[in-house]
Amino acid sequence: MTATSNSGPATGDEPWWDAGLRLESLRVGLSPSPASEHPDPDPDQPEHDRVEQELGGWERHLGELLAPFVAWLATQGLDEPERRRHRDAAERFLRWSYTDPGPVESRRRRYEDHLGGHDPGHLADARAGLGWWTDHRQILARTQMADRNGHQPHFPHKQR
Fold first, then answer.
1. How many CA atoms, within 13 angstroms, populate the side-chain half-sphere of residue 15?
2. Does pTM top 0.85 for this prediction?
3. How far apart are CA 62 and CA 59, in angstroms?
4. How far, in Å, CA of 160 to CA of 145, rounded?
5. Higher confidence at residue 47 or residue 64?
6. I need a labelling partner for 69 at 20 to 30 A (CA). Which of 127, 137, 142, 152 fits?
């Protein structure tokens, strides 16, 4: 994990700036992705079925967010229990975020305040896990920026 700030939309603190890159452009919302959304709901369908479909779409989107994070954690030299703690911390934060109506910019701070008042035993694990989550989201943001710009990394030691 880097010593960078754990801020930005990925964690809900103030926006993160790094070499002019703003992480706000990275899609981190918790609404279902277009691939997992259901088409227009059937007006004759009972409301509880529509709610179940919405939650099912959100659960799929949660998996879409967490799967690359879990794979990335496996490359970071962490043991299995530590990786699991970080994944659980990120998942708890994302689940809590789904119901949080406040501004994204202060979401992580509100979550930590919430934990401090309701579950202080998980606060240290949450901070550590969200630090790793932030690092992962920053890498994704940089990758997406490079992909959008058609940037090819330059490796001087390789001859083409």
1. 10
2. no
3. 5
4. 24
5. 64
6. 152
